[in-house]
Design brief:
By secondary structure, the chain is mainly β. 8% of the residues lie in helices and 47% in strands.
Length: 178
């Protein structure tokens, strides 16, 4: 019985394409500057939030978890926005990302440019749909500047700023044992 199991397992591994071979993590290492826990401290009356970028699946993907809390403004109630983005190398070793949020948005991004300390995600062209560009840039002071831009379906190459923010590395909480 054990011999059959070993033979079957060997055949299964040999027959499934790519199962026995490890894929390369591609250029994800260029995004190391994003890894960690970050905060966007909102001033009084402004939105604030937190995000984290972490390695997952044996360093094959980077996962961004994020939320922003918006205060009540006029007749608009306070609300919270949550999102998740998975950054990965596709089958052609191109950097890509898929974004999902609590409002039901789904955006597929290609990495337009990535260099040490800088990255731009740009949504794919879908006729009749808006386009989006998300940019991060590390600063000399250890923060990360973020910007989210939109382009109308009529001018898919003409991006205009929608949101800007600064991420500060979250300081670990120090607990003193008694």
């Amino acid at each position: 019985m054990l011999t059959r199991l070993i033979v079957f397992s060997s055949l299964f591994v040999a027959c499934v394409p790519g199962f026995a071979q490890q894929t390369k993590p591609g250029n994800l290492r260029q995004l190391d500057f994003l890894i960690g826990h970050w905060i966007t401290p909102g001033k009084a009356g402004e939105a604030g939030g937190k995000c984290s970028f972490s390695w997952d699946l044996q360093r094959r993907v980077i996962v961004r978890n994020s939320f922003a809390e918006y205060p009540k403004r006029g007749t608009q109630e306070a609300f919270r926005h949550d999102d998740l983005m998975i950054i990965y190398c596709d089958k052609d070793s191109l950097l890509s990302a898929d974004y999902f949020d609590s409002e039901g948005h789904v955006i597929s991004y290609e990495i337009q440019s990535a260099s040490q300390g800088e990255v731009s995600f740009i949504s794919r062209v879908i006729p009749g749909s808006a386009r989006y560009r998300l940019k991060y840039r590390a600063t000399a002071g250890g923060t990360i500047e973020g910007e989210f831009e939109t382009a109308s379906p009529d001018s898919p190459q003409s991006f205009v700023p929608y949101l800007k923010w600064v991420l500060e590395r979250e300081k670990p909480e120090i607990r003193i044992r008694k």
